[in-house]
Amino acid sequence: METMGFSIPLPWRKSSADRRVKQKQPDIKGSNIFLVPAQQKGKPLLFSPRRSPSHCRPKVKTWQKINSWHPPLSPSQSTVTPHPRLSPPPVKYASTLVRGGPSVSTSLLSLACDMEANVTFRTLSGTQYQVLDVVGEGAYGIVCSAVHRPSGRKVAIKKIAPFDHSMFCLRTLRELKLLKFLSEAGVSENIISILDIIKPSSLEAFKEVYLIQELMETDMHRVIRTQDLSDDHAQYFIYQTLRALKALHSADVIHRDLKPSNLLLNANCDLKVCDFGLARSVKTAEPSGTETGFMTEYVATRWYRAPEIMLTFKQYTKAIDVWSVGCILAEMLSGKPLFPGRDYHHQLTLILDVLGTPTLDEFYAITTRRSRDYIRALPFRKRRPFAQLFPNANPSAVDFLTKTLTFDPKKRITVEEALAHPYLEAYHDPDDEPVAPPLDPEFFEFDLHKDDISREQLKELLYEEIMSFRPAPIT
């Protein structure tokens, strides 16, 4: 199968007439990045290359693009290592293609996706949106691609059925309120936005939530799983992730569920953080002595959880998200999770195998006697330097890992300090990194009384949020 390939723009680098660039020209040999798009009905996905967004470029006097845009050469024609570029469609779709048109199996696959999308999103018939394909599913929602008919823009429609369980209602309400707040504050360049919401005709007819959002082509989990990332890409992706976190943390909000699959990507390497259903204000994120409330709802992938979550420290802080960023960077560098625990005990064992046995100060920061007894009963472990775990990594990346993956959250660097770290020097610009206004103290008031709020009351709160939404024109 012959397809057209497009190079992916690598990050811009600082340059100046009066000093040399400290970092060498990127060595992209063997670092081809293939962003795997969503289901494309067996057709090659074509992208128009464009420059990296201005808010993620360093301010310099001269610019030089690292990549050029050209079709890929065949193996017999190739004389140099190709630049990072898009791959053909995923093998499971591309393998069914034949010259002259799609095969029978491809047609059936496309038809099945079309039928599923049309049945699942039949409520949208008669709206401004033409449903295309189902592109993803979750525990209580499903996402399809669609076209906004008036503008012709492709969008994602997230259908959520939150009323089967109060927890689903809470998550949907949190995400909707927070995304509205961040969008209105103008700090959502690296955060998925809500473009529109399909409004129900009445409270009685309110059965599902339909959020119209930006359509992204893949996520970090798929990218890491299918190819190696260069250090340049890792820097760029981590910078954008921290940029989103700065907007959150400046509003005293913790994401609490950062992981590769919640980092959405486009072919030009734009990154947006998604899934804010577990987000909390710092003021409402304090654990109780019985590990209820916060902990009972914390069901995110354990591989990216900070140790203080499992060991019930005195207070959960923004440092939880910084730990997750360190885990994600380690996974980008090695291509595999750093702490892939099978369960609670195995997760802690893997963490301590790297960080070593906690010091006395770290030990006494653990508040529950049960957790202390557990740590005390474990054999002594020596710390394993990250330089040994990642011998081929950029030394600045190793130092970044050392400062983000600390057992004591008080010793962990903040998001602002992480952005200013030498590893991200090529992009850091404190004047162009978002700061959100403080949240109203009652923003997450429903979380404080969630045990006393009925599902019907949550439904009414969600209905009010949807009906008060005023979308900007989609272009």
From TrEMBL:
One Pfam family this sequence matches: Pkinase
Sequence segments annotated as region (Disordered): 67-86
Substrates-to-products reaction catalysed: L-threonyl-[protein] + ATP = O-phospho-L-threonyl-[protein] + ADP + H(+)
Signal peptide limits: none
This enzyme's EC code(s): 2.7.11.24
Residues given in the record as ATP binding sites: K159
CDD domains recorded: STKc_ERK1_2_like
Subcellular localization, as worded in the UniProt entry: Nucleus
Transmembrane segments: none
Activity regulation description: Activated by threonine and tyrosine phosphorylation.
Keyword Chloroplast included in the entry's annotation: no
Cofactor or coenzyme needed: Mg(2+)
Domain Protein kinase per the UniProt entry, residue ranges: 129-424
GO molecular function list: ATP binding; MAP kinase activity
CC annotations in GO: nucleus
Principal EC category: transferase
PANTHER family assigned: MITOGEN-ACTIVATED PROTEIN KINASE (PTHR24055)
Protein name: Mitogen-activated protein kinase
Organism phylogeny: Eukaryota, Fungi, Dikarya, Basidiomycota, Agaricomycotina
